[in-house]
Design a protein that fits this description.
Layout lengths: L4 E5 L7 E4 L9 E9 L6 E8 L6 E7 L2 E6 L2 E6 L8 E8 L4 E6 L2 E2 L3 E2 L10 E5 L18 E9 L5 H8 L16 E4 L2 E5 L4
Antiparallel strand pairs: 1-13, 1-15, 2-12, 2-14, 3-8, 3-13, 4-5, 4-12, 5-6, 6-7, 8-9, 9-10, 9-11
Amino acid sequence: DLYRKVFVFRNDPSDAYVLLRAQPEQPLQNFTLCLRSYTDLTRPHSLFSYATKAQDNEILLLKPKPGEYRFYVGGKFVAFRVPEGRGDWEHVCASWESATGIAEFWLNGKPWPRKGLQRGYTVGAEAAILLGQEQDAFGGGFDVYNSFSGELADVYLWDVGLSPDKMRAAYQSLRLPPALLAWKSLSFELKGDVVVKPRLRE
């Protein structure tokens, strides 16, 4: 249970990552990913990477530069332009549904205009799921200049699209439905220089 704790990625650039142990039982037609990050990086960095043997960017949340997030499903991405951070925690949720190809993006509890992405696609189930690196091969192929440096917390992955109420609840750290990956019952392995520490502030 990582309640009120964070992963600290100490080095920049870094070869460290956190391997998350979870496997969807079946391929995903819908999902919602949420996490909180705190960093002063201005170069590209990967927050969450879900790769299958067929597709290294099956699900990827990447910040290429301040003021933009890229959300990948099945190797294609949509970009969301956001205000440049004010040196604070940023809470992001990204959800996708195959039937409509609608990608939703929420930053700090507020929705951005929805975009179209990979309608009819299915996300594979046998995945390597990592925090802090972008996979260019199944479970590896990292480029240190896409690595994350800073603090990550409140990582969740659901196999459904969350309702707006639940998106806001995730931002406020309220009670949430059971998830494939849940911060309060996370099975993980630290690889390299990553430390679990208490959160310094809300």
